[in-house]
Amino acid sequence: MRLDKFLKVSRILKRRTVAADACDNGKVQVNGREGKPGTKLKVGDEVVIQFGSSTLKFKVLELNEKAGKADAGLMYEIIS
User: Fold this and answer.
1) How far apart are CA 50 and CA 24, in angstroms?
2) Which domains does the chain have, with CATH numbers?
3) What average pLDDT does range 2-24 have in this prediction?
């Protein structure tokens, strides 16, 4: 699954365009490398997102193209 779509479907970011902008501006890393919107995610990948002065680090647990609101939180595990 594409990184920008994962961020939107998992409800970490509200819109896919916002997710793509964050990736294009270098605010997202996947396994220590800069994440582009089209980066393919796999189960077990670690993603880090910079939100101003704070950082969100999580591990991908599940790739679900059509996760509902109840299932969105099951797609990842927050590390820090």
Assistant:
1) 13
2) 3-78 (3.10.290.10)
3) 95
